[in-house]
């Protein structure tokens, strides 16, 4: 018998939780997942969430066992949903700080901190800034031991715009991007 | 296994794999997973550049085009990534757990024997030995949700039917699944 050529299977992944859609029910964002799937892949949606296939998933179990499994899954879903809500609240209560720091009379750097809460990788973003503004950008730890991106040049406005759009992309509009200024203290005569 | 894994903390170095080493690696992979023979050149094309990423705890990730293909601890057997199993679901030894076990696996637990022997589960006919790397499927689902290593032989799992049957290496949603490389 001739060897059949094996082709790679292309598996669909959920645009919300990243799981194959049949596992969305375990991911804690089921409501959003379903919304996404119904819109993006209605055929897959009806296959997974039709009465028929829902009944089939637990065919082998007794009625009691079935109910127990479903109860536990519902509990888990509720727990995950609370967790997700908590995380979102934490994000909404946080802010990104874009600080303008005067290094000498006419030289400024911009320091961006507070990114980690939002799942933004500072190293990646520093690279993006470096190429976007054709300038130097690096990641250092600030006094609180948190990551801070230092960008050479007076590009606070551009940085603010970019961070804001990045947050919006992540569905986090309404996050505050705060601008501050750090001037070296002038020597004053006393 | 990958509960706390993050690129920032756990990735130490990235190295291009030399083509001679790459060839040897492919031979070893086919030895471990004979069904990969006809597709190994699709997975790791001759002209493709394999990159090995060294991580904490002597873990190596073999990646191509920023996607993890296999992982390996020290020089233990290779473990295919879940996404690779999704692409080639029939090329690896596999087991099926019952629906009740899914949530435990996805929260990072190992698999207990009863989850492998109940009515909704199924085990292969072949008696794979302890340490065999297996893809883990689930009752009522088409795609694999985890990869693990047998903690008992298939025969023992059926006979003993208690305790940990499979140690889970990586599962949907863990640190490796969510790892973004670039
Ligand atoms: Zn989902």
From TrEMBL, chain A:
> Which Pfam families does this chain map to?
DENR_N, SUI1
* GO MF entries: translation initiation factor activity
Q: Which InterPro entries match?
A: DENR/SUI1_TIF (IPR050318), DENR_C (IPR046447), DENR_eukaryotes (IPR005873), DENR_N (IPR048517), SUI1 (IPR001950), SUI1_dom_sf (IPR036877)
Q: What is its main location?
A: cytoplasm
Task: Please name the PROSITE patterns in this protein's record.
Answer: SUI1
What Gene3D superfamilies does the record tag this protein with? SUI1-like domain
- Residue ranges spanning the membrane: these are none
CDD domains associated with the record: DENR_C
Q: Which SUPFAM superfamilies does this entry report, sorted A to Z?
A: eIF1-like (SSF55159)
Highest taxon of source: Eukaryota
SUI1 domain location is 96-167
- Cell compartments where the protein resides: Cytoplasm
What keywords are annotated for this sequence in UniProt? Cytoplasm, Initiation factor, Protein biosynthesis, Ribonucleoprotein, Ribosomal protein
Protein family per UniProt: Belongs to the DENR family.
Q: What is known of its domains?
A: The SUI1 domain may be involved in RNA binding.
Q: How does it assemble?
A: Interacts with the 40S ribosomal subunit.
According to UniProt, the name of this protein is Translation machinery-associated protein 22
From TrEMBL, chain B:
Q: Where is the major localization of this protein?
A: cytoplasm
Give UniProt keywords alphabetically: Cytoplasm
- CDD domains per the UniProt record, alphabetical: MCT1_N, PUA_MCTS-1-like
Q: Which PROSITE patterns match?
A: PUA
Start and end of every PUA domain? Answer: 93-173
Protein family: Belongs to the TMA20 family.
Q: Which NCBIfam families match?
A: unchar_dom_2
> What InterPro entries does the annotation carry?
MCT-1/Tma20, Pre-PUA, PUA, PUA-like_sf, Uncharacterised_CHP00451
User: What functional role does this protein have?
Assistant: Involved in translation.
What superkingdom does the record give? Eukaryota
Q: What is this protein called?
A: Translation machinery-associated protein 20
Q: Name one Pfam family in it.
A: Pre-PUA
Where found, per UniProt? Answer: Cytoplasm
């Amino acid at each position: 018998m001739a060897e059949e050529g094996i082709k790679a299977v292309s598996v669909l992944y959920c645009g919300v939780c990243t799981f194959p859609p049949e596992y969305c029910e375990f991911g804690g964002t089921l409501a959003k997942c379903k919304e996404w799937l119904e819109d993006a892949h209605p055929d897959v949606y009806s296959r997974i969430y039709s009465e028929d296939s829902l009944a089939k998933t637990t065919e082998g179990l007794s009625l009691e066992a079935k109910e127990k499994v479903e109860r536990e899954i519902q509990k888990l879903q509720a727990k995950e949903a609370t967790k997700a809500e908590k995380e979102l609240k934490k994000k909404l209560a946080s802010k990104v700080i874009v600080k303008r720091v005067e290094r000498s009379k006419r030289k400024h750097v911009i320091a961006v901190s507070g990114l980690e809460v939002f799942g933004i990788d500072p190293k990646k973003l520093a690279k993006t800034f470096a190429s976007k503004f054709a300038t130097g950008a690096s990641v250092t730890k600030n006094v609180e031991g948190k990551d801070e991106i230092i960008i050479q040049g007076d590009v606070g406005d551009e940085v603010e715009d970019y961070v804001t759009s990045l947050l919006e992309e992540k569905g986090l509009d309404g996050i505050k991007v705060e601008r501050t200024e750090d001037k070296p203290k002038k020597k004053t005569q006393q | 296994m990958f509960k706390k894994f993050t690129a920032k903390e756990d990735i130490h170095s990235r190295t291009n794999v030399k083509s001679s080493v790459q060839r040897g690696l492919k031979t070893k992979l086919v030895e471990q997973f004979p069904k990969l023979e006809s597709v190994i050149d699709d997975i790791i094309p001759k002209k493709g550049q394999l990159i090995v990423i060294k991580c904490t705890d002597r873990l190596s990730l073999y990646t191509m085009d920023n996607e993890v293909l296999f992982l390996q601890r020290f020089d233990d057997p290779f473990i295919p990534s879940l996404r690779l199993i999704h692409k080639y679901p029939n090329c690896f030894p596999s087991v099926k757990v019952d629906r009740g076990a899914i949530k435990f696996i996805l929260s990072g637990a190992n698999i207990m024997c009863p989850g492998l022997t109940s009515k909704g589960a199924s085990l292969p006919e072949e008696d794979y030995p302890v340490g065999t790397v297996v893809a883990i499927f689930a009752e009522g689902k088409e795609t694999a949700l985890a990869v693990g290593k047998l903690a008992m032989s298939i025969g023992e799992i059926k006979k003993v039917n208690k305790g940990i049957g499979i140690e889970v290496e990586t599962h949907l949603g863990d640190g490796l699944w969510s790892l973004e490389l670039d």
